[in-house]
Write a structure and sequence with these properties.
With 418 residues, the protein is an alpha+beta fold. The protein is 55% helix and 19% strand. The protein contains 14 helices and 12 strands. Helix 1 crosses helix 12 and helix 12 runs antiparallel to helix 13 (384-407). The chain is elongated and about 100 Å long.
Length: 418
Amino acid sequence: MHNLAYILHSVRLGTYAFLHEWVRNLFGILILGVGTFTIVTFIAYLDRVYWGIAETTIHSQTGHVQIAVEGYEGERAVSEYSLLLNDWQGVRQQVNELGVKTEFITPRLEFTGLIGNGDDKTAVFVGVGVDPAVDHRVSSFEKVERGYPLTETDSEKANILLGDVLLDALDLETRDPALLLGVGPDGGLNALDVEIKGSMLSDSPAFNERFLKIPFKTAQTLLQTDAASKLVILLDNTDDTPMVATLLREHFAATGQSYEVNTWYDLNPSFEKIKKTYGRMFLFLGSAVAFLVVVTLINLTIINFIERRDQVVILLVKGFSRSRVSMIFAVENVLIAAMGTTAGCLAFLALFSTVNAFGGLRLSPPPGSVKDVIFKLVLPLNALPSIYLTMVAFALLASSFCWLSISRLKISEYIRRV
């Protein structure tokens, strides 16, 4: 109880000192508010960038998890058809029996070939056979520019979607006929008359120039196979991806089945590079803000101590210990840090709530992209405890300079000078 009363009394005195010097402390709150606003904005920006990369990857072909024959992702460029998933229906049944919570599990058949307009133009394409009944849920970041998307009624029809640039390069329009040429797993050349149902526009220029989408069963007919290249799994919750991938890998290893399991993260190796790049940027920005905050608090602390040295001596003469007087200054700094951090967060909420209400921040397309980026930043609640603790730590660090000054203060010499 004695220690608690000691601390509470010191807090009360520190609060009184904070209120008494509110004009000077307001400057400190302003500086810390600006620093907090900068840090919170950058963290919110990073959260949005990481979320955008994840969702774009997941909802533009990869899904959350993919299952293929072992070695498929590394070897498909040279031996694509020797690594097909022949028992894809059995593998899908195994996943369902494991009790994994999924939105759906769909097969994909990937292949390359030639497409001609029936006249004088031919182009190489990268094709994928998809289930039209569910493909729109894993390709929601693709936009059908002209024509119509594939639907469940197209499951066994020879309708296709082309990348927007590829369609123009062939001088074709929607509802025009075209001829597909593909090489089956047996090495035979197969042809198929198709009709163009629509064109797709993706965020990737390479996708728009070469991509072709066709119903899964129609792709099997073209390649004369019953196999699939992979199974694509879309989960209920993105956060479950590592757990599901581990479960599947352990299951296949325990049953001796040679299947590889890749997550959206594995299929997007640039994601880790982007995180490292932004991490270095955040380290630089955070260091600059930390320096600004610490210097500001140290400056305020030194000024307060110099102007209130008489009060410090009086408290020491009255029997206050040096550590207790130092605690009063520390409480004052902690209040500045807490109020400055709160002010920065409130400023963030006020600004970006307004910006988000008007549609968010529209930025120019990043390198390698063709679409503008819209950012709607939200307060990163998970980072707030760390931000507050960091600011309080900076406040206590600044207070240590006051503690050093008080511990070296010689009362008798100071009184004689006065």
